[in-house]
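Please decode residue identities from the backbone states below.
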């Protein structure tokens, strides 16, 4: 089945089975400045990926060699009325939420305060300053550093590693991590137990045990 086509993003499947999906921001001439139409495309593309059971990991990349995304399209907003700006907001929220709510792991930017804490987030938000890769790694904004020019390949390799694991287990692990992060310990343990039950009695669990004992690569049923 062919992928849907969009004006401002592209979706490419990687690997023999196509388990890794690459969602590329494709307004390179505008350094991927986020316009209303681009936000609509991101929302539509992520909704399609979320509904596709064959997707096991998503990598968000950029077709621009100069920038990943420079933020909102201020040229578009230059002609906005207050009503226009308010009307744009739901599309932006749907785009950001579409990436955040993917049921599979996504290699992409994450929520700043939750990653680095309120004090460090406030420093960056209030000042708007830029930071280099060394500081980004030190404060936990970047998970890992790779040589310049190899970021896309490294991200796809990481996604392929994730996609090789049980899709049922990985989806439930992500759900447990998200839902259990901001609740008390007792509630968090209940979230973890629910995710465990959803995995433990799945076909993936049976296949994983069999593959281990037969010393072969698992052929995950994904259910």
């Amino acid at each position: 089945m062919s992928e849907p086509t969009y004006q401002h993003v592209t979706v490419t499947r990687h690997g023999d089975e196509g388990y890794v999906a690459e969602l590329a921001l494709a307004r390179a001439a505008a350094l991927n400045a986020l316009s209303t139409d681009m936000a609509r495309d991101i929302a539509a593309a992520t909704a399609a990926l979320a509904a596709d059971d064959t997707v096991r990991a998503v990598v968000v990349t950029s077709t621009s060699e100069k920038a990943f995304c420079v933020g909102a399209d201020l040229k578009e907003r230059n002609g906005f009325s207050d009503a226009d700006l308010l009307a744009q907001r739901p599309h932006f929220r749907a785009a950001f939420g579409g990436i955040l709510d993917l049921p599979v792991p996504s290699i992409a930017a994450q929520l700043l305060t939750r990653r680095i804490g309120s004090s460090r987030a406030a420093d960056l938000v209030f000042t708007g300053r830029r930071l280099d890769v060394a500081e980004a790694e030190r404060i936990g904004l970047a998970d890992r550093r790779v040589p310049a020019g190899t970021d896309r390949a490294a991200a796809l390799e990481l996604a392929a590693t994730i996609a090789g694991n049980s899709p049922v287990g990985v989806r439930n692990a992500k759900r447990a991590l998200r839902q259990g992060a901001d609740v008390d310990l007792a509630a968090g343990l209940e979230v973890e137990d629910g995710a465990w039950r959803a995995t433990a009695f799945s076909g993936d669990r049976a296949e994983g045990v069999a593959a281990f004992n037969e010393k072969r690569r698992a052929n995950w049923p994904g259910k």
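Observation: The radius of gyration is 19 Å.
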